[in-house]
Amino acid sequence: MLSKIGRVKVIWSRPLAGTPKTVTLRHEADGWYVSFACANVPCVHLAPTGQEVGIDMGLQSFLTTSEGEHIENPRWFRASEKRVRWHNKQVSRRKPGSKRRKKAVKDLATVHQTVARQRLDYQHKAANKLIANNDVIYHEDLQVRNMVKNHHLAKSISDAGWGQFLTMLHHKAASAGREVYAVPAQYTSQDCSRCGTRVPKSLSVRTHVCPECGLVMDRDENSGCEIKRRGQRLRGVPGMPGAESPAREQNRESPAF
Ligand SMILES: [Zn+2]
């Protein structure tokens, strides 16, 4: 029962949990959606796994973990871009106010909706997997918005929707009793995750080769390991090797959490 509207029929996607506080109506390409924000939703904490993971959010793969697992980048938007462009053109070709224009606008909205849903679904699955397998997850403090301003990277970054993904990851972790930490992102792709030596490399160099300790590792996997290492150091996880010189430590930024 909604005030000023009256009774509405809904199709429930899943049962309500907790106490509903607010109701939001949203109009999408294929109809109206009702969402309930609920309080006192019971948390289901997952059993500890004893595992911690660092994730590198990249352009090559959407994610690479410190365990060397690549979660590939679904370029939904790139793939659908042609379709979007085509539908955009259709809209601009139609006479304003015409029936055919209305139809073209609706089709365009449907394409956008499909892409958004595919992306969301993909991100849910990736986040669930990380949370199921790990007690603690470390990621770079990306300041995604600043990076998006950099035009060259912008497309891939908005494709991957990292900001949306991280928000989701933090929420899911909180209700599953897992921990997620952001660590300073500077030089995570350059620094050796074993000995801490800075090994400068351009974006095209895909393998980390450390001249100091001899570590040879996939570039993104090394970043994942470095992110995990930084996170564990900042949290003061016992048994972390203090491989860095004190001078470099002073240059480190304060923890982002
Ligand atoms: Zn090294």
Written description of the protein model:
There is one protein chain. This protein is of the alpha/beta class. The chain is built from seven helices and nine strands, in the order βββββααβαααβββαα. The strands form three sheets. A five-stranded mixed β-sheet has the order 5-4-3-6-7. Strand 8 (207-209) and strand 9 (216-218) form a beta hairpin. It starts with 18 loop residues before the first strand and ends in a 6-residue tail after the last helix. Mean pLDDT is 84; it is low at 242-257. The protein binds zinc ion. Residues 192, 194-195, 197, 210, 212-213, 215 line the site of zinc ion.
Compact summary:
By secondary structure, this protein is α/β, with parallel strands linked by helices. Helix content is 41%, strand content 19%.
Set down the secondary structure blueprint.
Elements: E1 19-28, E2 31-39, E3 52-56, E4 61-65, E5 70-72, H1 76-93, H2 99-133, E6 136-140, H3 144-148, H4 151-160, H5 162-176, E7 179-183, E8 207-209, E9 216-218, H6 219-235, H7 246-251
Parallel strand pairs: 3-6, 6-7
Antiparallel strand pairs: 1-2, 3-4, 4-5, 8-9
Helix pairs in contact: 1-2, 2-5
This protein binds zinc ion.
Zinc ion (ZN) binds at residues 192, 194-195, 197, 210, 212-213, 215.
